[in-house]
Amino acid sequence: MENSDPAVHADSSCSPCQACGACCSYSSNWPRFTIEDDAALDLIPEKFVNDRLSGMRCDGDRCSALSGKVGVATACGIYAMRPEVCRTCMPGDVECGMARKRHGLAVLA
Known about the structure:
Layout: H1 38-42, E1 58-59, E2 62-63, E3 66-69, E4 73-76, H2 84-88, H3 94-102
Antiparallel strand pairs: 1-2, 3-4
């Protein structure tokens, strides 16, 4: 599992996502469960799952598994078992661009 300490990820040369986190704090409806099977969902700690069991628990629009400061240094506390919607959001895609714009960050080329 990826280290969830945002200080470890201050150097964004590994992935632009580690200095961003905008997609993880875009909307409380974003980190939803879609095609995960029960075995995959059972790996996600209960404290991160919403009350409807339909997605990740959020604090406002921010996924509760996200640590760090958006646009500076972030990390996912459940990176290895994150939902499919999180896996399919790629740096520079349309969803990434929407989330980055909402947080006042430059869109990736």
